[in-house]
Write a structure and sequence with these properties.
five-stranded mixed barrel
């Protein structure tokens, strides 16, 4: 599953953030120790436009890859 939007409410303690798409409902995204970050880090994620690839698990998108868009 792939989603694009703006990262909001980033919480490094829970390894999660809310992805706000340009249309549609916001999605909670969770990252793991194996998630690949491209052109961003958890510390620089807030407010960035990102593309997230991963799997939906009980309404949460568990990220395999989080890539910042330039």
């Amino acid at each position: 599953v792939g989603r694009k939007g703006t990262a909001s409410a980033v919480d490094p303690a829970t390894a999660s953030f809310v992805l706000i798409p340009s249309s549609g409902a916001p999605v909670t995204v969770r990252w793991t120790a194996t998630t690949l970050f491209s052109h961003t880090t958890p510390q620089t994620l807030a407010g960035r436009r990102v593309e997230v690839e991963g799997m939906l698990d009980a309404g949460t998108l568990v990220a395999r890859k989080i890539e910042a868009e330039d």
